[in-house]
Design a protein that fits this description.
Elements (H helix, E strand, L loop, with lengths): L7 H6 L9 H20 L4 E4 L10 E7 L5 E7 L6 H8 L6 H24 L2 E8 L2 E8 L7
Parallel strand pairs: 1-2
Antiparallel strand pairs: 2-3, 3-5, 4-5
């Protein structure tokens, strides 16, 4: 597995977020992302690998991101089904961040993604919750288990 942190300095040296990781690193992250997806599904969580690009149209559940640009590497997030509901979409479109529904979904999703990290850690994956600024975190998966639990 290729260490995603080694690309932060080149990223900043080459003009910021447009710097793309080398193909061999991306390939290793894609393999790791598939292992993460399989493990989450094995434990009963809906999960999809997102190779980058537009997240529109993804099914609810865990999203396992392959980040070819910053934040680089494999990250996970959680998208609950309620985010597709008319009530929730209205809150987002009107930017009603004080809404009880909006704050509930944001807080519950954070609880769930932290739980997903703990499930992966228990399975032997190396995970890291990385502060990205403000109230934002990158929920990283750095490596697959050295000794998988079958």
């Amino acid at each position: 597995m290729t260490d995603p942190f080694q690309f932060f300095t080149p990223s900043h040296r080459h003009g910021g977020p447009g710097y793309r990781a080398p193909d061999d690193a991306i390939e290793s992250w894609q393999k790791l992302a598939e292992e993460v997806r399989r493990e989450l599904e094995r434990m009963g969580f809906a999960a999809s690998v997102v190779p980058g690009g537009d997240p529109q149209g993804l099914p609810p559940g865990a999203h396992v991101w392959v980040n070819t640009v910053e934040p680089f590497g494999v990250t996970i997030d959680w998208d609950p089904p309620v985010t597709g509901s008319p009530e929730y979409v209205e809150k987002v479109l009107t930017q009603d961040v004080t809404s009880g529904l909006f704050s509930y979904v944001v807080n519950a999703s954070e609880i769930i993604v932290r739980a997903l990290c703990e499930v992966l850690r228990e399975a032997g994956f190396q995970v890291l919750i990385d502060h990205a600024g403000g109230r934002t975190y990158n929920y990283r998966v750095l490596a697959a288990p050295r000794f998988p639990k079958f």
